[in-house]
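input
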Amino acid sequence: MQKTALLQGKHEVNPSNIKEALQQATEIEIATIPVYLYTYYSINRVPDQTSIQNELEAMLLKKGMTQQDAEEKALALSARIMVISNKAGALILSVVIEEMLHMSLASNVKQALVGDPELVGKSPSVWPAYLPGHEPPFPINRSKLSLDQLYTFLQIESPKPLLGKDDKPTALPYVTIGEFYQLIEDCITRDFSNPQCYHTDRPQLIPGRAYYAQNDIDTVYYNKYHKPKFENAADSGDLVHVVDQVSALKALETIVTQGEGSKGGNTLNPDGSVNCAGIKPGDYDDKAHEELAHFDKFNQLYCQLQALQEEFKGLFGDDFDVGQYFIYNVPDNPSTSDYPETVQKVSTLTNAVYSYLYVMTQACYRADANTQYEIFMFGIHKSMMWILGSLCSMMPSFKYIGHDGREYEAAPTFEEYTFSAASTPKAQIIQLFNEAVAVYDGVAYLKERIEDLPNVPLEGYLEKTEQALMA
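output
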């Protein structure tokens, strides 16, 4: 990940460093995206309920249950597994969608005030990774769904400071993301009240053009009564066209309210543990109280998963892992180079498509309205919802032996692919697709969709990247 200019020891955002602070805000949001996506794709949202039910029934019969009791108990337990697997996936993806929104909102504010949001080359390149400037620092990993991973999510979204302290900050230090955004809001309130400070002629991602949709088919889950529930509410937040002080503050407020909430929800216990015993209804980010803030979503999911694990261990022993039924056995922080050659080809293609999202999003801030619409609607929506989703879902079908001698299922690594200046990114993606389909024809059906992607050039940021590397 390219580093922003350091702001060591400065606990105030002011006109002299607001450009760096807004870039840091964008990179905080970008750092969470591969973490949440990796965990999302570790979940099998549609496990085989009949197979699970039969296996559980057999184990319950061995424990001495009657046939009828074993059948009823196995059915109830398998239904709980089906619900939590589907709900966990919908919940985590709903947060990913809002993190993409937050990246765009922070970029809109930067574009209006100082210009040039930088999104390419900002995804973490070393794992474990760390949120830029967070005190205390804590590792974030690409890991499968677990209580430990959900605890990391709670640390990311925590509305209260975490235990510990970082004595060597490498960016503008803050103790919660909400506090960091408050520093920026204070600066805008104090120093940017004049409408002439806002460059309304610069392209932004604005509402009313269908660029942002709160939900898609993958953010819905079905409860035990088979009733659908979307995780994101329609009025929880949207893109904001930043044209003045009021709209700038609204954009930043949306980010904080969706993440931490409005300070009325749950928090970690004073000792840093998760509060499940006294969990409150939660903090909402919409007027109708249909959608919880990110922290409360993760808090609720943590407690539900913990309760399910405890119930299964009570029945089948402390070594029993209920996750075997709906969580893929993917490794922590894999690299494409860890995989066999066939899997490497598919993984590299996946990373290139993932990286192209940032190329296209950044290009939207340098495009006219018509070109921007084409890039976003036919590029970002198509690559994210169709191409990237298909490739990521495909990865766990590959099994391989890791360096530790154990068998794993592969996972999308979300490594940022470095495009060459010799040809366009789209041309390179097509070449990577051809290489992947040559060794695995399971990706062949994506050919037409990949060829339909808009052709967005590298010009406009490649030169800046080269200058930064030479500095």
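quick obs: Residues 174 and 463 are 32 Å apart (CA to CA).
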